[in-house]
Amino acid sequence: MKFLKKYFGNLTDLQKRIMFTLGALIVYRIGSFIPLPGVNASAVLHLFSGEGSGMMGMFDMFSGGSLSRMSVLALNIFPYISASIVLQLLTATSKNLNDLRKEGESGRIKINQYTRYLAVFLAVVQGWAVVRGLESMAPVNGIPAVVNPGFAFELSAIIALVGGTVFVMWLAEQITARGVGQGASLLIFAGIIAQVPSGVGKLFSLGSVGQMSPAMIALTIAFVVGIIALIAFFEQAQRRIQILYPRQVSANGVMNTNASYLPIKVNMSGVMGPVFAASIMMLPAFVQRFVQSENLVVQQVLGFFTYGAWSYIILYTVLIAFFAYFQTAVVFNSEETSTSLKNMGGYIPGVRPGEQTNKYLDDVVSRTTAIGVGYLIVVCVLPIILNTHAGMPLTIGGTSVLIVAGVILDTMNQVQSYLVAKQYTGVVGHAQKHGRFRN
User: Which position among 18, 106, 200, 400 has the lowest Cβ density within 10 Å, counted as fewest Cβ atoms?
Assistant: First the structure.
């Protein structure tokens, strides 16, 4: 015990954050194996057989296999993501919520509270749909999916599923606050990484039984590597806008200036745009799988969202573009940036401060985001087309690869920024200690 206390006491703050993040991810993975009480796991697993490349397969991959195992974390973080989408849309359209957002930290805390309440409500609705779907499932080899169906099972199962979602929300917030990286993205990242070995094994098993030629295996691997290289390039790509700041007039009467750059990322929305789009596209597949309906209209509507259909591909593309622009508008406010530059005396060469700077920044962000949208469509939609219409067995989708690469790059940038900040603090503290700075 003393050894552990001494060991953790000697760790730096960054090391403690990394250890906390790893510990939280381990706890999350353990929780994904805790079964939902009263459910026959083999029957549910049979339900998901053949779903590896479909939308429910993607849902299961994002949850780290929790859904196919029907664990208490089956709903995962997705009710919270759906609630975040709704609150962000409402914040953009509602004056009261927009004013609340402008209040700063206190407003952000209140909006987060509303998001949690809505996430719990959505978890109750989705949990009820899962439970009713499990009860209506046909027996597998004479064994029903639910051992003792009825009100007692429904109530206990819904409470367990909602409790699992609340736990995952809490864990994601703890990672964000006390660990390294963005909590929700890291949990999805952990789920995807956990499914990668089985996906690679499935790819080579198809080759071993002759269902897939070595050329196709090599082509699939080359395509995945190319997608990763494309993601690494575009996630770091940015458009730099020169900003000039006036300095004091020199002795000969010449005005000197300081120059800096305002970086505009090509994909400013990050992985959240595709995650939001995928979350919405997963909902119809989720309903179709667990809520059986004989209504012809309902079947036609759900058929519109069939994974791989051109209607699905078109809608998915539109959602990716919409959320990329929407998330960019949330992250970057050109009016606030223009006002901040004007207050600090900065200006863009050839552009007047104020309204013209605002319009110029809007135009630049719109053009760079258009390039980013094209990149996201290639990464997220092209693998679906190749998988469903060209016969390329991609066991891991482009959205999954984007999330994994994006989270790794974002976490590395966070760690690097943290190290730079700590190094700067150390240099300033050393200088103050030796009397080089005056208070």
Answer: 106
Distance CA 224, CA 392 (A): 11
Q: What is the pLDDT of residues 56-104, one digit of tens each?
A: 677 777 787 888 888 899 888 888 888 888 888 888 778 888 788 777 7
Residues 94, 360: Cα–Cα separation, whole Å: 27
Q: Is 428 helix (H, G, I), strand (E, B) or coil?
A: helix
pTM assigned to the model: 0.77
pLDDT tens string 355-410: 888 888 899 999 999 999 999 998 888 888 887 877 676 666 777 888 888 888 88
Distance CA 289, CA 51 (A): 11
The answer to whether the CB of 349 falls within 8 A of the CB of 270 is no
Which residue, among 278, 243, 241, 235, has the nearest Cα to 263 in the 3D structure?
241
Query: 10-212: what CATH class?
Result: mainly alpha
**Radius of gyration over alpha carbons of the chain, in Å?**
25
**Which pLDDT tens digit goes with each residue over 340-349?**
888 887 888 8
What is d(CA 316, CA 233) in angstroms, rounded to the nearest whole number?
23
Contact 365, 264 (CB under 8 A): yes
The answer to whether 316 and 383 are in contact (CB under 8 A) is no
DSSP 336-384: HHHHHHHHTT-B-TTS-TTHHHHHHHHHHHHHHHHHHHHHHHHHHTHHH
